Amino acid sequence: VFFARGCNELVRMCQAEYTFLMNADISLPDNSCLCLLDYLENHPDCIAVSPCVRDNKIIRHMASGIVTPLICIARDSFAGKFLRQTTWYKKAMLCDTNPRSTFTVPKITNSCCLVRSKEFLECNGFSTDFIMYWTEEDLAIRVQKLKLSQTVVGKALADHDHGSSSRKLASSLVRAIYVHDRFQYMKKHFGLRKALLVEICL
Q1: SS3 label, residue 157
Q2: What is the mean pLDDT of the chain?
Q3: What is the DSSP string of 71-93?
Q4: How deeply is 42 buried, as exposed, middle or buried, from its count of CB atoms within 10 A (0-12, 13-18, 19+)?
Q5: Which of 112, 100, 141 is nearest to 124 (CA)?
Q6: Can you tell me whether residue 156 is helix, strand or coil?
Q7: Contact between residue 108 and residue 152 where contact means Cβ atoms under 8 Å apart
Q8: How confident is the model at residue 16 (pLDDT cuts 50, 70, 90)?
Q9: In the predicted structure, residue 130 carries a pLDDT above the cut 90
Q10: What value does the mean pLDDT take over residues 183-190?
Q11: What is the Cα 64 distance to its own chain's centre?
Q12: Res. 66: pLDDT tops 70
């Protein structure tokens, strides 16, 4: 059923106050789950929390602001390398934020997150418009409209073996799914013209 529908069904099946969603390429080296739980229990307006992530020995937070068409072009295109050096881009992508701190953001990583189950389902969870990617970007916009928040809890840490799940699929298929999901996200939130513009630029 792929990522979005699988996660939504899991949350419904668990019937728990909180549900911990973790990709197959994530492992927890310490008491990260308890740190995330403690934060949610003390912040009722927060719908989901994620840890900082150690990926190839590099610790990062994998969070950002709302991903707009221009942010996407800056992040994913060769020409965008100049935009990636600007203060505007670094602020939007929270590049200067200490990953071991705790901070509220529009978008957290869904590769490892603890969600408040009832509220997650009430906002329809991860959209099944997407197959594998861009679910966290889509959720970020919907959560913000509901005036809820998402938070990175920096004292919690997860180890990420980046890409080990998708390596089981043909790279051409993974690329096709990513492009499909990116186009769906852009069209849904920014309109068909901007979605097409993003694909032309990338």
Answers
A1: strand
A2: 92
A3: HHHHHHSSGGGTGGGSHHHHHHT
A4: exposed
A5: 141
A6: strand
A7: yes
A8: very high
A9: yes
A10: 97
A11: 8
A12: yes
